[in-house]
Design brief:
By secondary structure, the protein is an alpha+beta fold. The protein has a single domain, classed as BB2672 (60s Ribosomal Protein L30, Chain: A). The protein has three helices and seven strands; from the N terminus they run ββαβααββββ.
Length: 186
Amino acid sequence: MENAPTVKRIVIFEEETFEEKGRKLEKSVRRVAVAAVLSNPYAGKYVSDLSALVPFSEQLGKRLGKIVVDRLGGMEKVDTYGKAGVVGEDGELDHIAVILHAKLAAGYREYVGSMDTAKEFIQSTEVIGPMGTPLYIPMRYKHKYDSNYIDTVRVSIPDAPKRDEMVVAIAGGSGPRPLSRMPPTP
């Protein structure tokens, strides 16, 4: 794909929580985030046509989505999901926004469940930032709105993104927030 980014490396973050605030959980909660460090072929210049990012976005969603779902043990183990991105200082917010919003979710849904089973919108955040910018990945329950599943996964890569790079991350989780007990809202 001409003018599409290249994947320079993939970084995987995993955590499993067994206890929170001195209380053992009935079931551990797992979170997996996969981040791709990408070249930004549009860094330092204005380009009116960003359409090369669209097919790249879908392929990236598939690639990262497979890793998340495999690490969590299969589609049925993924209860929550989210996505986020940061573009380096020589890039534009639209460079990362097109990747996150064009087709990334469609690629991820091939592994996490279609809109028939994973009905909730895959939330996202995007920013411009220097190396080490933390990504706050908003997590939502995939089947329906449920406040007990609203959570955030935070990831950071100390040496990325460089000025001419981007970082895209997607995440999945195996349950609600630890100790979640939000009462139903009317």
